[in-house]
Write a structure and sequence with these properties.
- The protein is of the alpha/beta class.
- It folds into three domains: 108 residues, Phosphorylase Kinase, domain 1; 213 residues, Aminoglycoside 3'-phosphotransferase, Chain: A, domain 2, CATH 3.90.1200.10; 180 residues, 3-Layer(aba) Sandwich (Rossmann fold).
- Helices cover 47% and strands 14% of the residues.
- The strands form four sheets. A six-stranded antiparallel β-sheet has the order 1-2-3-6-4-5, with helices on both faces.
- The longest helix has 22 residues.
- It is elongated.
């Protein structure tokens, strides 16, 4: 609810003549928590005088403290973005001004550098300027921020998550049946609470293991900018610790959810799997459906609340957005049938490329979990994906450990309804059979793909690899693999000596045929 009127402040800050420098026009953007005044190369951010279950900004002092906290938090994610905090004052004449010492202080405002809309991901995407490598950059940046974030072992937890679920239901129920269907809301709440109960032990384990940290808390695409050289994360949550002292996967879930909302499933899947490669946090994966559903539900609630502040076409637009996020929440939390795909082939055969491109074609979002032998090798030894593994570990014994971990992680993901793609050499017939047996034990359809290409093409690929976790980089290593006894290959063979898109279509045709045959 609105705690006090700020109408006169909003009117004053919307007027270009009330700024100390020449401003042609002022663009006003509103959220349920703040109002932004875009004036020239500056942004003035006014905290709304609101009292919500998740945000109490009802007094002038609380809004001032929120500005102080946001400035401190922004220094972590976007150094120098927030320039200063200014008082909003009413002069004896009645005129409202920013800064100075004259007159009565009536509110507080943040003064920030303006980031052009063209850099914001919600404006930039889809774009050829932001593709696989940019998604990987974003994943690495987020992983780095999460690794450095302060660990909080007495925050988050099942009680906090349950409270968020019920608060979301309470808000959304106020908009039934005008915006949302009551029955669907009840189903969403019930499924969310059920997922919470099923994962309560895992949530406690993550609290104890240090996965709960002080995070950004609001990683929507509209709060992330990509300048072409760096990422800028702004508007971190400052008004409620329950929304920023969270599981790192809950922080990640926001950007994954928002990418899915704009139909960027491929980038969603690349971001997710690359983040997991750097964080080695696949054990927390069973929580991701619940976390994404929570994020989408909260976003639906925010949009619904914003609709009460709008009229005409703007109100209709935000209502459509609210319903879209609500439908997404149902998608995330609904059960799906797991599928196990194995992409095998010798180095340079193109198996990893096809595994990566296939990942986004599976439901639910963020798509298939891709488990790659090269990455698991590095994770076992505590190395980053692009670090080189010592040759002493190139042994059958270590390889056996790698495939065992590969299957363990795949079993966990399959058990919670996710699709999995195994990306490994699979030259050993026993390992190929073990993958098929795993699918059978988890009652999941199995699709085995064997990638191949002429040696000349494979050699060119390993020489031109960029940011690739494979340590195979020389022709001699390819020649050594030619002497391996792969036994009889029963998986579907796909030649990858054509373009990426043509090879992908071949693989998709195999998947389509297998699913069609199984339905007969």
């Amino acid at each position: 609810m609105i705690a006090e009127s700020q109408a006169d402040i909003i009117t004053a800050l919307s007027n270009p003549k009330n700024y100390a420098y020449k401003v042609k026009s002022v663009e006003v953007r509103q959220s349920h928590i703040a109002i932004l005044f875009l004036a020239g190369d500056k942004v003035y951010k006014l905290k709304r005088a609101v009292l919500y279950p998740e945000a109490d900004l009802s007094t002038r002092e609380k809004r001032r403290l929120a500005c102080v906290h946001e400035m401190k938090r922004s220094a972590v994610y976007a150094p120098n973005l927030v320039e200063k905090i200014e008082s909003v004052r009413r002069l004896p004449s009645g005129k409202i001004v920013i800064g100075g010492t004259e007159g009565e202080e009536i509110d507080t405002i943040l003064v920030m550098k303006r980031i052009p809309d063209k850099y914001l991901l919600n404006h930039l995407l889809p774009s050829s300027k932001f593709d696989r490598f940019e998604a990987m950059d974003l994943a690495e940046k987020l992983a780095d921020l999460h690794k450095k974030a302060k660990i909080l072992k007495n925050k988050w937890g099942t009680d906090t998550i349950k409270r968020l679920i019920l608060e979301n239901e309470s808000v959304l129920s106020c908009f039934c049946p005008d915006i949302f269907e009551k029955k669907k809301l009840e189903d969403l709440t019930r499924n969310s609470l059920q997922a919470l109960a099923q994962n309560s032990r895992l949530i406690r384990l993550r609290q104890k293991s240090g996965a709960v940290r002080k995070c950004h808390g609001d990683l929507l695409l509209s709060n992330i900018a990509w300048t072409g050289t760096e990422f800028i994360f702004f508007s971190p949550i400052e008004y409620n610790e329950n929304l920023c002292c969270i599981d790192t996967l809950y922080d990640l879930a926001e950007v994954l959810m928002d990418l899915e909302a704009i139909g960027e499933r491929r980038l969603t899947n690349i971001l997710f799997n690359h983040y997991m490669a750097h964080m080695n946090d696949i054990s927390g994966f069973p929580l991701l459906p619940l976390y994404q559903a929570l994020r989408a539900t909260r976003r639906a609630a925010v949009c619904a609340k914003k609709s009460t502040l709008m009229h005409g076409w703007d109100r209709r637009r935000i209502i459509r957005e609210a319903r879209h996020y609500f439908d997404l929440a149902q998608h995330f939390i609904s059960g799906k049938n797991p599928v196990l795909v194995a992409c095998g082939g010798l180095s340079g055969s193109g198996k990893s490329r096809i595994a990566r491109e296939l990942g986004g074609y599976f439901d639910p979002a963020p798509g298939a979990v891709i488990l790659r032998d090269d990455i698991i090798k590095k994770q076992i030894m505590g190395l980053a994906p692009t670090q080189t593994l010592d040759k002493q570990y190139d042994t059958p014994a270590f390889e056996e450990v790698v495939y065992d971990v590969l299957r363990q992680q795949a079993r966990m993901a399959l058990s919670v309804g996710s699709c999995v793609i195994l990306d490994a050499l699979f030259y050993n017939p026993a390992e190929r059979q073990a993958a098929e047996d795993l699918a059978q034990s988890e009652h999941a359809p199995f699709i085995g793909l064997w990638m191949d290409a002429p040696v000349s093409i494979r050699e060119e690929r390993i020489k031109t690899r960029l940011r690739n976790p494979s340590d195979v980089k020389e022709r001699a290593e390819l020649d050594r693999q030619l002497n391996l006894d792969t036994g009889k290959i029963t998986w579907t063979k796909i030649m990858t000596d054509t373009s990426r898109d043509k090879t992908l279509q071949k693989a998709l045709a195999v998947l389509k045929k297998v699913f069609h045959d199984q339905k007969k």
